[in-house]
Amino acid sequence: MDSRKRIRKAVFPVAGLGTRFLPATKSIPKEMLPIVDKPLIQYAVEEALEAGIDTLIFITSRKKHAISDHFDSEFELETRLAADGKNDLLERIVGIVPDHVNRVHVTQPEALGLGHAILCAESVVGDEPFAILLADDMIRNDGAGALAQMIDLYRQTGASVIGVEEVAEELTSSYGIVGVRENPAGHMAIETIVEKPQPANAPSRLGVVGRYVLDPSVFAQLRHVQAGAGGEIQLTDGIAALLATHPVLALPLVGERYDCGSRHGFIKATIEYAVDHDDIREDMLDHMQAVLAREGRL
Ligand code: UTP
Q1: Residue 21: domain span
Q2: How far is CA 256 from the centre of its chain?
Q3: Domain CATH code at residue 253
Q4: pTM of the prediction?
Q5: Quick one: which of 107, 178, 261, 294 could link to 136 by a disulfide (CB 3.0–4.6 Å)?
Q6: CB neighbours (10 Å) of residue 207?
Q7: Ligand 1 site-directed mutation target among 136, 137, 212, 257, most atoms within 8 Å of CB
């Protein structure tokens, strides 16, 4: 792989069924659920833009238009807010995606798994390394965003990069888990990757989080992947095949991760981000204190 290639394209798979959030996700993707006042997908898009991405590729299911509507301009609302002098609100909805950035929507006809969703992006990504962001994994930090950290390592090495974090032993069966060895440059080279292993079979406790920078040869591998864990076509299995021909590094990401695909992770993120908003912070803290007192936790 040419290590000088710029990572310009990011794939956002948003075609999952989101069953853990039913009925909220019956007609909208879970990535449209808001943390405070922004949908999950917007946080992920902002992280990608900050990392220099200029083409956003959304893999959506046939029925769900909410994602494209969210990033389209809303003339009537904008005109109204401008006329009412509500400039602070206007600023929140204009220019979420700058004009020079392309948006492409690809339909995944059936939710056959994350690997299949990524394969749907092949014709748009073409023959260049690309990023994947799962918007339901939120990574919050004060410095460089998660994807920017990964692209930095890709630039140094030319290798594919997968974001990881240490997970509790009993949780290995909820993650893709990597087995690594330190390479001469001091990076963690991935030797094995398995989807949702039981703790006894897990090669480590390093769980894959929803950020990837991948060589495009992963598409050729994904074409041969059969349904695996959970009956789905797994991205993990495509990456496992990629390892035979291509270096893949694991990067522990700096920052706090919230699994917003689960209800408790989603609520934790909501609390953390709410406390960050000056206008609601004090109310929130007072309320949490009152709840804890009522529940006998203070
Ligand atoms: P999840 O494993 O979280 O599945 O998908 P899900 O269907 O979204 O949610 P649950 O488990 O039923 O509650 C991980 C990511 O892959 C996308 C999802 O949208 C999410 O971003 N995905 C998954 C697809 O785009 N297509 C698929 O076929 C499966």
Answers
A1: 9-261
A2: 14
A3: 3.90.550.10
A4: 0.94
A5: 261
A6: 21
A7: 136
